[in-house]
Amino acid sequence: MKTTGPSKLINNASRLVFRCFVIASTLDYPFTAGGEDAAHDDAAQPAATTTTGVEHPNCLLFLAESTIPNAGLGIFTGIDLRPGDAVAEADIIVPLQDWEWHAEADVDFWFLWRDYSWDLSEVGMESDVEDGSALVIGTGCMPNCNFALINAKEGKPEYGHSGLHRSRDPGAGGFTGFHDQRMHALRDVPAGGELFVSYGEHWFEDRVEEMGAVPFERSFKRVDKFLKRFKKLSLKYQTSDNPDFTKDLWDVVKARANYETKNANALPLSFEDMQIAQIIGSAETRLPYSVRTLEWLNEHARCMDNIRPGNSTIRQAGRGAFATRHIWKGGLVAPGPVLHIANKTALNLYGIREDGERDADNVVGKQLILNYCFGHKRSTVILCPYTSPSAYINHDGESPNARVVWATESTPNHNHDWLEEDVDFLKLKNKIGLSLNFVATRDIKPGEEVFIDYGPEWEEAWDKHVNGWSAPPDSEDYASATFLQKDMMMPLRTASEQKLKPYPDNVVFYCHYSYSPELSEFEGPWSWEDEWVHLPMTPCKIVSREAQGGDDEGNTYYYYTTVMLNEDELEELGDGGVIYMEYNIPSSENHILTNVPRWAIEIRDKLYAKDEFMSNAFRQEMMMPDDVFPETWKNIQE
Q1: What is the pTM of this model?
Q2: How far apart are CA 242 and CA 245, in angstroms?
Q3: For helices 6-20 and 217-237, angle between their N-to-C axes, nearest 10 degrees
């Protein structure tokens, strides 16, 4: 009987393989923002010199070099996590309002917050700002994305200002009210495992030139289908005469893969991984490469949970940072990797000319994120730490118990040589590459609030703000829509009832409704259906209310008839009242919904009505000590 030689079998089978699957990718390793190809053998424990070591072996969350080569820093759990477990302390979210309109034209460098911001709708801010983004400081800013191993997800934030009110408190609007956004595990994560969230495919699609074709979740599913075909072919042709056929064929596949498309990057990284992938799936074979030993983390990482947020002991400060364990003098309070901004004018807010264009000669305010950044009176540079616990650390100019210093030269993703370069050099750097440490200047006891000295310039600015502060007009009547929305059993007042007892002027009702010109002949009334909850939110008014049953605690359930606001009614709300829909309802039409449950109606603030957007809110960067701030960055003459 005539047999076919191994080489011919390989060629024949490989042609069959490539007919059933087009293999593609960019790199030889899973990655996230900034990820580049790297050798498979070095992925699990890349060489790194010791940084600020972890002083407490029971650290719950670490900051260390990512397991994804060239992806910068990542965060790692210090304990086994189960689905639903909270991963870290709560984040804060700072709105970045209309940045492109205000400042993009003046910026001659890459604004790094672009790469570290969230879409407004992802955090519930879509009706607060007309055009902007959300800066999630903390775990929302720090995890990398590996579509093979998405194991965590951020929730929605709470909103509140720790008891401060704009009618009486000069600190109102000086810190963000969006807080308590928590990350939770989506699956089992072993101690030492790196945490990954989904950035969404669009994030990578917008960065193909920079990052290549990143494999998505569906890429791994396609590889799994391919591996089934591969297994059939290998079983068909492998015999005792050519026992290495399967491995040889796999080498052919890897050699011929087109590494400029997504799917090849989702291929198993080795022959052994390929064999395992046929049982557990190609995505799961990446798991071992995303885990570091706790011994490695204790030597090379920085602990992120030495402090926690809570209401500050300083009345106007809002929330503060409190020690979770004893921190020794000189010990690490919190790591502070920073985003550098070469010119702080990128955070200016400008007035509007009569023609609706920006008035570049009229600076009317600053972005709120400025309050969370460090600067120097003789420099245009500001540095914004993006770790959540450090964002809560308040000011004490007399007896601070911590200070900021530069991370050690061996700290991953900290380029100590940048401190010797000038500001023009920083403008050319479109990646994060600097890191601070918050360190204790004396022993700090568990539960004690942590303070640093923001500098005399900050203190002078605060005193000036307090002495010149006055409450905004009509501030006594202000009530945050967020608090009104929380009381789901409170009967909502109809439009006629509001004539006698109006709601605060800052609130608007929203209902689920989607209008297009094709619906002009179908005004309704429509009876509410629960699946409409997926429709966009549209400004509406309440015309009637009906009680329908209740619960065992005596609460009454109310159902409402609502009418969507038409274009004339939207105009009556005033400029900046609400974000206009894609299509506004003509004034001649009435689009009505009946039997709408309370949970399907939202009370929201008008655009820019929240404290964060008040024109008289305090704005001032923290000042870095003169002996810490690099001399080469001092580009403003005294």
Answers
A1: 0.86
A2: 6
A3: 150
3-state secondary structure of 514: coil
How far apart are alpha carbons 307 and 311 in whole angstroms?
A: 13
pLDDT at 92 over 80: yes
Task: Identify which of 142, 102, 149, 146 has the alpha carbon closest to the alpha carbon of residue 118.
Answer: 142
DSSP class of residue 99 equals: H
Q: What is the DSSP letter of 465?
A: H
- 525 upstream amide cis, omega within 30 of 0: yes
Measured over the CA atoms of residue 312, residue 313, residue 317 and residue 318, the dihedral's sign is positive
Please answer whether residues 172 and 161 qualify as being in contact, where contact means their C-beta atoms are separated by less than 8 angstroms. Answer: yes
Q: Where are the beta strands (DSSP E) in 453-564?
A: 507-512, 526-527, 537-550, 556-564
Whether the per-residue pLDDT at 190 is higher than 90: the answer is yes
Helices (H) and strands (E) in the chain, counts: 15, 27
Token pair 């008289």 is at which residue? 616
Whole-angstrom CA distances from 101 to 104, 119, 354, 359 are 7, 17, 16, 11
For 203-357, list the strands marked E by DSSP: 302-303, 307-311, 319-323, 332-341, 348-352
Distance in angstroms (rounded) separating the CA atoms of residues 544 and 562: 7
Q: What are phi and psi of 366, to 5 degrees?
A: -135, 155
Q: Which residue has the tokens 């979770």?
A: 324
Largest CA distance in the chain: 101
Per-residue pLDDT at 240? 82
User: From CA 279, how far away is CA 298, in angstroms rounded?
Assistant: 34
Q: What pLDDT is stored for residue 137 in this prediction?
A: 92
Dist. CA 177–CA 292, nearest whole Å: 36
Q: Which of 192, 172, 205, 313 is closest to 616 using CA atoms?
A: 172
Computed from CA positions of residues 337, 341, 346, 347, in that sequence, does the dihedral angle turn out positive or negative? positive
**Separation CA 32–CA 577 (nearest Å):** 38
How far, rounded to the nearest angstrom, does the alpha carbon of residue 129 sit from its chain's CA centroid?
Answer: 17
> 437 CB contacts (<8 Å, ≥6 apart)?
52, 302, 332, 333, 334, 335, 336, 404, 405, 406, 407
Bridge partners (DSSP) of residue 309 are 321
Spatial separation of the C-alpha atoms in residues 569 and 573, rounded to whole Å: 7
- Nearest partner of 132 among 610, 623, 620, 619, judged by Cα: 610
Amino acid, res. 237: Y
Residue 293 tokens read as 């030993």
